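Task: fold both queries, return tokens.
Query 1:
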Amino acid sequence: MENNERDDVEKLKSMFLSAWHNVQYSWILKTKTYFSRNSPVFLLGKCYHFKAEEVESVAGSCSDKASERKLVIGSVVEFRRDFASRIWLTYREQFPQIQGSSFTSDCGWGCTLRTGQMLLAQGLVLHLLGRDWTWSDALKMDGLDTESWTASAARKLVSSLESSFQGLKPPESHAPAPGRAEEASTDLNCVHHRKIVSWFADCPAAQIGVHRLIELGHASGKSAGDWYGPAVVAHILRKAVKEATDPELQGITVYVAQDCTVYSADVIDSLQKPAQGPETETRVDRKAVIILIPVRLGGEKTNPEYFDFVKGILSLEYCIGIIGGKPKQAYYFVGFQDDSLIYMDPHYCQSFVDVSMNGFPLESFHCPSPKKMSFTKLDPSCTIGFYSRSVQDFEKISEEISKVLKPSSKEKYPAFTFVKGHGRDYEQSELTSEGEPRHPQYSSGDFVLL
């Protein structure tokens, strides 16, 4: 009886938190994001310019950051289509209870896990669909209706409280049906799109869902309801992909840099591991690699000398984004314009979507509205991600990043380095059985996230 009462209290707390966060962050949805027509916009390695005339000068401004690569000089519509095609993963509520806790929502504490999921999802999009892929319905989404959304949340809370006091079961929430029935398609891109989204579903069986990430986080001393830093999330993502059982996820691996150092031989080994089983002496299993690099770009605040470095990273075609944010809030950074970062925000509490349903709605997994934040608000703790399909790709990545990494005249040290050889060839801090430092450099320095 006592346990049941405790569970009811926890559920009520969860309802209050969900409603509070809906109200707390809804004002952001009402604000419009303004983009200049006179400056290029970079989105995960692609360059857009909204000014129709003076094409030659536009190309020159984009080339400053994206030389030697294919440029996209596009319209607002092309930018919107590209942005809205990125996979958006946010707070969810009323999903299956997380084992070992009473949580059925990650509102208030799961934002860094969500930003990590978004970064990994972009890596998987590159792996299975390619950077030029866009979702066919990207431009059909309406902007988020904030007023009806918050009103709905309030009504749901009141209804839940009333039924709780009456001893009745609160009405179940169902994901809204899509505006139109989605026809079944045999198109491979559509299949891969849905499969990627399903890997991040909010259920215990999902390969890289919140339930699985929290389970893997126990080894790092983390539990449901705890705050996670960008470096911790990087290691959790590595474990999740390593232990995934889906055959298509076994064609990719995650490498996490140690102490701001990428050991090239270790990455190359990950790209071409010896095959398992008999008669495999001369055969190798070729895997793509997602490279995650936890860094700290300053002390209490981000050093302004690193702003150009961040711009350079986000302008590279191999970049899959940055897990970061500002103090107390985690964002997924995907681009920039002038002195503002462009990001996707996980702080919107949406209803659980059952991805096991045939033709489940995809709209809530795509964001129609980009947001901007000044570089000066960037917290110094973040994790940078890259995607490499082959050894040749990695060599090109190393070359391009090395140019971006050159320290400025004032900043003596680069954010991270590439070193030839294996990590084991160099003196390192003592490792745990999981291959992680016993005292990770960023564990105490990660910012607190809500």
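Query 1 returned. Query 2:
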Amino acid sequence: LREFTRCTFPIRRAVCPKLKQVVSTQSTGSCWRLPSGWSAPTWACSTELAILYSKYNTQKMKEHLELFWSRVNIPKVLRAAEQAHLWPELVFLYDKYEEYDNAIQTMMAHPTQCWKEALFKDIITKVANIELYYKALSFYLEYKPMLLNDLLLVLTPRLDHTRAVGYFQKVGQLSLVLPYVKSVQSHNNKVINEALNNIYIENEDYDSLRESIDSYNNFDNIALAQRMEKHELIEFRRIAAYLFKMNNRWKQAVALCKKDQLYKDAMEYAAESRNTEISEDLMGWFLENKNYESFAAGTFVMYDMLRPDVILELAWRHNIMDFAMPYLIQCVREYTLKVDKLEVSDETRTKEAETTNQQPLVLGEQLMITSGPAFNQMPGMYGMPQQPMPQQLYNGGYMGTM
């Protein structure tokens, strides 16, 4: 009581005579309340009243701070609120005092009393220590996992996505933040792409995996292909063949398609390889398995890569000329057109040569003969007679004087 009286004496003397009622009530131990009609008109009085509220009437302190927070000594009231364990009021004062790091740490330390979703997301974007971003992710993962994607949406412009995705991979909760990972895949980050591809494989979502591979190519293609070529689902093995094709491993891609009887993909990959050996080997494989329909289809899909003599021999040896006949007819037609074009081109060159040989060259010879004398007979400039050329010098003198 003596200490309180000494500290508040200037306020009581200058501003608040009614504070005597507060002190007398405190000394008797009765229930303390603010005298009716009393307000906090000054900075010092508002500060002391906030401290008294923190000790004797905590329900009123939040209302008082919301009205007069700009008139109190915030550091002093902060200490009083912390000693009284008034965590919501402490967060409120930290926010007003722009100590956002302390506000976030207080909410994470006492979530049941002072955590509010809107306030937390508003303050977290203002902190100076970026490590608090990742502590907030860990806090949400433990305390509010279903709201984690909302927090990530707010922090997306500020996070190191490689670190964030790596953290969720480490704790095994990557599927929980799948919307966030999809939203940041546009950066074409290797860690993000591989993490998302792994989720698609675990969920057996081969359509999304194919779309991801086509849109974002920054990942280890060969490692992913080798992982999926032994997958139990044929669609994932098909994607493995597609990855081998993208990396110019044509033989592996065609071999994997043959193993899974993906005839159409095998023919398309062989045609894209522009390799005659791979194409003809595939045609031979069709005949070994008596797949004559695919043999006939391959003659058109891989038309540019096949040699007519090889196809004719294969068809004759397996007695399937009917399946090869459309291809052979097309080849004959193509070669006939080429020969016709060559004949027309040859005739055109012959006519041009004959026309060139019949043209006379008199004009050119006449110009060469008459150009010399015409130059020598030209009169001197400006009507003056042309002067004779001077005699040649020989060892410093004229030849005529030697």
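Both queries returned. Flag for query 2: Residues 11-41, 363-372, 374-386, 388-402 have pLDDT under 50 and may be disordered.
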